[in-house]
Structure formats: structure tokens, C-alpha cells
Design brief:
The chain is mostly helical. The chain contains 13 helices and no strands.
């Protein structure tokens, strides 16, 4: 892979990972129309790491607090287990600690609940998703579905839910939508943000929740991919090109996350809705034309 190709792939990854236009849908369409070869697995892993770093940079304060509170949750659960066994042998029962006692602990639990259905759907449907990527009409239909979801998102009344008010049922439903968004053409960010808004999340929190809940999903996918990477095939020049592409993906991803904050707050999804509709219709038309 040349340096120019690596930069182009990094640009596409950064743009489509966070803007609500479906990175998998674009990749599937480009591969089918232009007979492009898939990027090798190691570079794909690096591109996702680049966009993941962008999420960490934008939300580093929230993520750090969530890590700290997550460790505190584990500590308090262990203490409660200890109390449970002590209470079995003592007449005077000690009270248990309240584990979820602030907004960030609730945020951690909500993300865990969302990740469960995402992981199950992603694992069970992995072969179906791979097959769907080979049929041009599938990303076309899915992009039109994304277009409809984005159109709805701009017209959902503003909610006010923050971690304190969000229910675990809300989180589970949003996790299901993230799992479904593994289909090529279904935008992960667009789908999850729309699900959050329909669940009553505030617009600012909907964006934050969508991107932070993507972290365990992306990390899980990377763990499954990296075991199949052939590191011996990576030469010195390839490593430099990969590094540049990864940096490009991270920088563009950072810009796109910041853009999404404005798009959702000012209800500007319509332009992306129109784009997905046009690209989806083009993909369906190309499928029948090439058949």
C-alpha cells in the first residue's frame, strides 16, 4: 500500500466512522464497484485505533472519571461480597454499600448494559454481516434506512435525560441498535444517537453516550481481529505508511466528533440524511445495472 493510499484510507475512516454516513457501507460499495481489495487486517486495526484515540482525546475527562469510578465499583462490590459472608456468621447484620451512588458510576453501568447486546449481536451475526457486504443492494437499502433515521433524529423533541435519569432498559435498547449497526450501510453513530434521542436523552449527552459506548465495541472487535494479524508481513516502509494513515484517521476523526456535537445540537442531520438517501439509491441502481 502506497503512502497516498494510506492517507486516503485514513481520511475515509476518520470521516465515515463518526459522521452518520456508515463507514462499512462506503467500504462495501467502493469494494464492489471498483473491485478494491480489502485493506490488510493490521492496517484496519490501526485505523480503528486512530479513531479510538480521537474519542479518548475529546472525552478524556469523562473517560478518566469513568475509569476511576469503575475501579471503585469493583472495590465496593468486593466489599459487599465480604459483608455478605460475614453476615452469614453474625447475628448483627452489617449494611451493604450502595454501589451506584453517583452519575459517573451510573454512566459506567449504562455503558456495560449497552455493550452486552452489542457484543452478542455482533458475534452471532458476524457471518451474515460479512455476506451482506458482498451484495451491493444491501448497503444501498441500509443507507436508505440510515437516511430515514437521521430525518427522524432532527424532528425528535429535545429530551433532558442525563445518566441520573436514563434507565437500564434505555441503555439495553441503544445497545441493540449498535449491534444492528454492524450491517453495512447502517450508521453506528446515526443509529445510536437517534435511539438515544428517542429514549429522551439530552442532545449533548446523546452524542457523548454514542461515542463513549463505542469504545468497548471497537476494542472487542480489535481483540478478535488482532489474533489473525501477520506482523511478519509488515515491512519498514509499510509501517511508515500505516502510521501516517493512522494519524490522519485520528485527526479527521477528532474534527468529525466536534462537528457532530454541533450537528446534533443545531439539528443539522438533514444534509446527511439526503446524502445517505442519494448514495443508497445509487447503490441499489448499480446493483440492478450490473446484475
Amino acid at each position: 500500500m502506497s503512502l497516498l493510499q494510506a492517507i486516503f484510507m485514513g481520511l475515509i475512516q476518520g470521516l465515515t466512522e463518526f459522521l452518520p454516513v456508515s463507514s462499512s457501507g462506503h467500504l462495501a460499495i467502493f469494494q464492489q464497484l471498483f473491485k478494491m481489495e480489502e485493506a490488510d487486517m493490521f492496517f484496519d486495526v490501526l485505523l480503528h485505533l486512530g479513531t479510538l484515540v480521537a474519542v479518548f482525546i475529546v472525552y478524556y475527562k469523562d473517560i478518566w472519571k469513568m475509569i476511576c469510578e469503575g475501579c471503585s465499583i469493583i472495590r465496593d462490590v468486593c466489599i459487599n461480597i465480604s459483608i455478605f459472608f460475614k453476615n452469614l456468621s453474625h447475628e448483627e447484620k452489617k449494611p451493604y454499600l450502595r454501589v451506584v451512588n453517583n452519575s459517573y458510576r451510573k454512566f459506567v453501568m449504562l455503558v456495560i448494559v449497552s455493550t452486552i447486546p452489542t457484543g452478542v449481536i455482533g458475534y452471532v451475526a458476524r457471518d451474515l454481516v460479512s455476506m451482506a457486504s458482498q451484495i451491493l443492494i444491501v448497503p444501498g437499502i441500509c443507507l436508505i434506512i440510515t437516511s430515514i433515521l437521521l430525518f427522524i433524529a432532527d424532528r425528535v423533541p429535545d429530551g433532558g435525560k442525563t445518566p441520573k435519569n436514563v434507565t437500564y432498559t434505555n441503555a439495553f435498547v441503544v445497545g441493540i441498535t449498535q449491534g444492528i449497526a454492524t450491517l453495512p450501510g447502517i450508521s453506528r453513530s446515526g443509529t445510536t444517537i437517534t435511539a438515544c434521542l428517542l429514549s429522551g436523552y439530552s442532545r449533548k449527552f446523546a452524542v457523548k453516550y454514542s461515542f463513549i459506548m463505542s469504545i468497548p465495541a471497537i476494542l472487542g472487535a480489535l481483540v478478535l481481529e488482532i489474533k489473525d494479524v501477520d506482523f511478519s508481513a509488515v515491512t519498514g516502509s509499510m509501517a511508515v505508511n500505516y502510521l501516517v494513515g493512522t494519524i490522519v484517521a485520528g485527526i479527521v476523526g477528532y474534527i468529525c466528533i466536534k462537528t457532530m456535537l454541533v450537528v446534533v445540537r443545531k439539528k443539522k442531520f438533514t444534509v446527511f440524511s439526503i446524502y445517505c438517501l442519494i448514495l443508497g439509491a445509487f447503490s441499489i441502481g448499480a446493483y440492478f445495472y450490473l446484475a
